[in-house]
Design a protein that fits this description.
Blueprint (H helix, E strand, L loop, with lengths): L10 H4 L19 H20 L2 H16 L4 E5 L1 H18 L6 E5 L4 H4 L9 H7 L8 E6 L5 H12 L3 E6 L12 E4 L14 H20 L3 E2 L2 E2 L7 H14 L4 H10 L4 H10 L3 H10 L4 H14 L1
Parallel strand pairs: 1-2, 1-3, 3-4, 4-5
Antiparallel strand pairs: 6-7
């Protein structure tokens, strides 16, 4: 069911949402050529990214909260419906292969469940109680990111309300500022993306801007917790031919060794790229490299810096 206490969910309020407005540049959309339509859409996507840039400080704060939750052993959960829900699923699904994270600790829920990922489940987004149920395992130390382009989706609001009730931190990412949003989450990132070229189709500019924000949040958070060295993804899981090749190239570059030696080190490190880099640079065993990384809280640069500091003090 929807939240009966929330006046912003009344149908007569939806027409006031920015995401439901008509864009003045596309009122004659059906008369335009394909090239003209494409140009409009891409220009609006660029405007969406510019709208996200305005909120870079809040986005950085969100990234810091993600890093804090993960370092403290908490979970990160994305919750949304429709396009927003699928974007959350995409973000959570990409973290394990890119950053070596536990898929149980960074995950996503969406209105309508797994079936809705591939086929729209109209009406699922209206169930406030489904949003509550989807996150009822969260608690203090965890972080919920609610995704709702319109800001009024009952499913996302239900998830946010339940997570807050259980003591979890909450963030709302939306593309339509509305009255009372500050009461919905601990941190609200309200992107002013404005009306869509195709009226109400928030899979367009709003979706692009939301995806950019999620990319920024998770990538900045992962850099903060040591999932990158220089600009290399040093915690990737080499589960495919492409990723295995990338892993070798990363160790070759960061470890300052030949490709053949990089491949040998990765094998010796059981596929752990970070470990192989520290082995290469410090000329030590896998176990000793892991100890150095543990002391550096998983940061390759710190592990290497600590080694140089130790050598200078001797």
């Amino acid at each position: 069911m929807t939240d009966p206490t929330d006046p912003s969910l009344a149908p007569d309020s939806w027409q006031t949402l920015l995401t439901e407005g008509r864009h003045p540049k596309s009122t004659e959309l059906d008369t335009l050529s394909s090239q003209e339509v494409v140009l409009l859409l891409l220009e609006e996507d660029r405007a969406g990214i510019e709208a996200a840039l305005v909120h870079r400080e809040k986005i950085a704060q969100a990234a810091d909260w993600v890093a804090e939750a993960l370092e403290a052993g908490g979970d990160l959960v994305f919750a949304g419906a429709g396009t927003s829900g699928r974007l959350g699923i995409l973000e959570s699904a990409e973290c394990p292969p890119t950053f070596g994270t536990d898929p149980e600790r960074i995950r996503a829920v969406m209105a309508g469940g797994q079936r809705a990922v591939f086929r729209a489940q109209e009406g699922a987004e209206d169930r406030f109680d489904d949003g509550q149920t989807a996150v009822d395992a969260l608690g203090p130390g965890d972080l919920l990111v609610g995704l709702s382009a319109s800001s009024v989706t009952p499913y996302a609001r239900g998830a946010l309300a339940q997570a807050r009730q259980q003591g979890a931190r909450t963030i709302l990412v939306t593309c339509a500022a509305a009255e009372g949003l500050e009461d919905q989450a601990d941190l609200v990132i309200a992107l002013e993306t404005g009306p869509e070229i195709l009226t109400g189709s928030t899979r367009l500019k709003a979706g692009s801007a939301t995806k950019a924000v999620l990319n920024a949040i998770t990538t900045a958070a992962m850099v903060s917790v040591g999932k990158a060295y220089e600009n290399l993804m040093v915690d990737l899981k080499p589960g495919s031919a492409k990723l295995r090749d990338r892993a070798v190239r990363i160790v070759e570059s960061a470890g300052q060794v030949s490709r053949q030696e990089a491949d040998r080190l990765i094998r010796a490190a059981d596929g752990e790229v970070k470990t192989a880099i520290v082995m290469a640079r410090c000329r030590i065993s896998p176990d000793e490299a892991r100890k150095r990384l543990s002391a550096a809280r998983g940061h390759v640069r710190r592990a290497l810096t600590n080694l140089r500091d130790s050598e200078r003090s001797q």
